[in-house]
Amino acid sequence: MKRFFCALLVLVLTALVPLVGFFALKTPKAAAVETAKGLAALQRFESVDAAKVEEKLRKLELKRLEELERQNRRLRLDEILRLLDAGKLSYRKAMKDVYIAGDSLMEGLEVYDILNSNHIFAQVSASLSHLEENYDKIVSIRPPVLILHYGLNMISAEEVHLKSFIKKYTSIIERLQKALPDTRIVVSLLFPVDRSVAAAPRFGAISKYNKQLRKMCKALGVEFLDSAEAFKENGSFTTRYYGADGIHLSAAFYRNVWLKHVIRTLEIGV
């Protein structure tokens, strides 16, 4: 038994000696190295700008909340469109905050009894002079949303007329912006015409006018309502909503296509 304990002691000492030697040899330098590493890590931690970290976290949270709000808006919008399709919601109610001024293409909304007549300022053959004539009435109402559709009766293939049109339109909108700072001003693109009349020189300039209207809206900081997709079915231009003159559109177009496009694009009512 005594011989067994002696052998065990020898084994233990044999195992401990290298470890003691290791720590004995490493302790001064190792401690310094580990201390240096610790200090470096601490310095890196201290160098982190707490304000920047907080700002980054704030932006991430804001982005999350914005995405959540977008999802909620889409759900509310889907519900509005569903109720319209089911006949459980009228366009009068869905678009109670929307007022529209323009030519006969906007007058159709009143003629077809789709929107309240007191929300529509439109007239056959109307030009920008019509908007000027109704300026005071519109301003007095202080509409939450104002959609404008002017230009089809003023369109010309001559460049000088286009420049004059944009200049005058810009001037009126600038006045509206000052008088109605809380109104959401939306400029509609000029509606396309049917192929049967599209060959007329003046109508050939519609795309050029719309391009300049888009630029004008960007410069003024107002919205441009691009309804080009509303005139397409399966990706191609459709003619089935046009009347005999190739310019004016059916009640079905306004009820089933354009107004839904307006509500969806502008997120009306959500």
Question: Can you tell me about this structure?
Answer:
This protein is of the alpha/beta class. It has 2 domains: 47-89; 91-266, SGNH hydrolase (Rossmann fold), CATH 3.40.50. 60% of the residues lie in helices and 9% in strands. It contains 10 helices and 7 strands. It has helices spanning 2-47, 50-85, 91-94, 104-111, 128-133, 135-141, 159-179, 195-198, 206-220, 251-266; strands spanning 98-102, 120-122, 145-149, 184-188, 223-225, 232-233, 236-237. The strands form 2 sheets. Strands 2-1-3-4-5 form a 5-stranded parallel sheet, sandwiched between helices. It has a two-stranded antiparallel sheet with strand order 6-7. Strand 1 (98-102), helix 4 and strand 2 form a beta-alpha-beta unit. Helix 7 runs parallel beside helix 9 (206-220). It starts with a helix and ends with a helix. Residues 2-25 have low confidence and may be disordered.
